[in-house]
Amino acid sequence: MIEIFKTNVQKKSDSNYIISIIKQQFPDCKINFDLEDCDRILRIEGGRFNPKQIIEHLNLQGYICVPLE
Length: 69
Known about the structure:
35% of the residues lie in helices and 28% in strands. The chain contains 2 helices and 4 strands; from the N terminus they run βαββαβ. A 4-stranded antiparallel β-sheet has the order 2-3-1-4, covered by helices on one side. A hairpin with a 6-residue loop joins strand 2 and strand 3. The protein is globular. It starts with a strand and ends with a strand.
């Protein structure tokens, strides 16, 4: 399963923090950001995870996160 999200994450330090939070919940997933992309892409690849939970995690941290279509 692969999900790609559009975010408003700006800093590498913020992306590293978010990755660590998501990894705690979904340790088997591969997670990365492309902050150079205009959509500040968050890409998650792995077995089973709930995209809604990912969005909620980022929203709780004050970030915008929506599925990229």
